[in-house]
Amino acid sequence: MAESGSPQGVARALTELSEETSGLVSREVQAARTELLDKMTANVPGVAMVGAAATLTVLSLASSHRWLLRTLERRFSPTTTALLATVGYAAAAGAAGVLGVKWLREAPTPVPAETVRDMRQEIGEVTMGQPADLDDAGSIQN
């Protein structure tokens, strides 16, 4: 039997470590895939409804655009009406763009949060020899 400090013991330990690490990485990658797929498939009906709403909104906007032009042309010349409509739409588009960018900056990142938290905890267990204490963000606390 080989001693724990012998070359065969070290080689065996390194082989086992490599196999365990490979298995851990494979399980975590699969967990991340599963988590992301579950999140995406849960959102498919909502995405379809948003697509339908967007289509109907375009039709509604086209109709209201025509109504607005007809109403403005009763009071202003066609040139002034076109200018007013252009400025109004540009202002609305700018406001929507600013609000959209603000919303996207505040949105959480689309990462597999549970898998990241589990992986950090397992790394903490390996490096510290005990389960790691995680804060609310999933970071290891010392």
Keywords:
single chain, 142 residues, mainly alpha, 4 helices, 3% strand, rod-shaped
Summarize the SSE layout with pairings.
Blueprint: H1 7-42, H2 44-73, H3 78-106, H4 113-128, E1 133-134, E2 140-141
Antiparallel strand pairs: 1-2
Helix pairs in contact: 1-4, 2-3
Structure, briefly:
The protein has 142 residues and is mainly alpha-helical. The chain has helices spanning 7-42, 44-73, 78-106, 113-128, and strands at residues 133-134, 140-141.
Can you walk through the features of this model?
It is a single chain. This protein is mainly α and 142 residues long. It has a domain at 44-93. It contains 4 helices and 2 strands, in the order ααααββ. The longest helix has 36 residues, at 7-42. It starts with 6 loop residues before the first helix and ends with a strand.
Count the E strands.
2
Major beta sheet summary: 2 strands, antiparallel
Low-confidence segments: none
Strand content: under 5%
| Number of H- or I-type helical stretches | 4
Distance between the termini: 40 Å
Average of the residue pLDDT scores = 82
Q: Numbering strands along the chain, what is their spatial order in the largest sheet?
A: 1-2
Structural class: mainly alpha
The level of helicity is over 70%
Rg is 29 Å
Tell me the overall shape: rod-shaped
H/E series: HHHHEE
